Amino acid sequence: MANSAQGQRLTEQGLYRILKETFPAQNDFHNTDYCEELQELSDFGITSPEQLKGILDRHSPAVLEYDSDPLGDFHEQHYKSEYGEAFVNERVKGGFWFAYPALLRIALELEFGDRYREYANRRDGV
Question: Which domain of life is it from (predicted)?
């Protein structure tokens, strides 16, 4: 069925829409085209909206808990020097740190464990 969500391929716009439906609006502060994130999903065999929703349904509570964990003083000062005091203070007050792409990557790490960590290290040149 062409109109059915079943069998649809995930697109950049669809990825963003699902993240927006799953995570709080306060975390929607990083401007990206989601091309890189879509490629990562594809590299792990996640090509449909249903597959992505399944992963996010399983892991979003843990992802949001991780996102709300307070930073230590060292990291807070580091981020203030890198991003500015107002940026960090807003997040401290709101109890959140990560934008949608990072929340997605945390979910992928929870889903795929060491396999995703090794992939991310290669991606980041670590």
Answer: Bacteria
What are the boundaries of each domain within the chain? 12-69+97-123
CB 59 within 8 A of CB 111: yes
Q: How many Å apart are CA 89 and CA 54, to the nearest integer? A: 33
Unique residue bearing structure tokens 């307070």: 70
pTM listed for this prediction: 0.85
Which residues 6+ apart lie within 8 Å of 59 measured at CB?
106, 107, 110, 111
Whole-angstrom CA distances from 52 to 40, 59, 80, 104 are 12, 11, 33, 9
